[in-house]
Amino acid sequence: MILYKFWRQLMAFGSNKILVIGEKETFIIKVLLGKLKDAGITALFSKADVNDINEEWGDSGLIIYYLEAGERMDGDVATFLRDKLSDNNKQLALIGDAANTKEIIDSFPPHIIYKTFSRPIDYNAFISDVGLYFNMVAEGEMKKSILIVDDDPNYMGLVREWIKDTYKVSMANSGLRAIKWLGSNKVDLILLDYEMPVTDGPQVLEMLRSDDETKGIPVIFLTGKDDKESVMSVLALKPEGYILKTSGKAEIVNTISKFFVNR
């Protein structure tokens, strides 16, 4: 009861709805739903059917898929969940035997899978992990973090608007400010302007790679030049990629998304 009260207080600050999916609402699933509700978590059940899942989805913050021994996730359901979870920036937790869940894990992008739980379920541990998930969401820690470095505040602000709903975005208007910021902050990706006054993109990248604390941070260059010679100069520095500044929202968002999916 102490654990449940703790999570009830914690999760009062954010969305705490869960959708539990299964082939049918078994006794175990009913017990699970009850445990979640006792912990102050709104929990709904849906049959493993695309129409039923879509109807019950609502504003669920976490999706749970329960697999009995020998069960597999239907192909249409798997495709639907992959697309829906990505579009809504949500994650999936799996409950089942290792053999049951492995196929799903192997076929889903890693960033979509939150965690797997073995049967029989340790309910206290399960509730604790669910509470941790919602706490991280409330703190913004589930989102990948991106630092945009560009001396053009208008362009930098535009890119931020395009990606801020999906990623945790920070900005620096010079290479030196970016280096200073990284001294006390961590980031999953840097979008780095190739051409900047004083300290340009290549110089910033060299500084990052010479420091043990920052050498592993992936960098995608932002460049305004698309001629062959300029592109080859960018690629020679071996960044994770480059984005033309003339690209529209869709191309930039897709480039960043593909980077995180493939990483």
TrEMBL record:
Keyword annotations from UniProtKB, A to Z: Phosphoprotein
Transmembrane segments: none
Xref: SMART domains: REC
Pfam family, one: Response_reg
Keyword Nucleotide-binding assigned: no
GO terms, biological process: phosphorelay signal transduction system
List of residues that carry 4-aspartylphosphate: 193
Domain Response regulatory: 145-260
Listed PANTHER family: RESPONSE REGULATORY DOMAIN-CONTAINING PROTEIN, STRESS RESPONSE REGULATOR PROTEIN 1
Protein's job: May play the central regulatory role in sporulation. It may be an element of the effector pathway responsible for the activation of sporulation genes in response to nutritional stress. Spo0A may act in concert with spo0H (a sigma factor) to control the expression of some genes that are critical to the sporulation process.
Entry protein name: Stage 0 sporulation protein A homolog
Organism annotation: Butyrivibrio proteoclasticus (strain ATCC 51982 / DSM 14932 / B316)
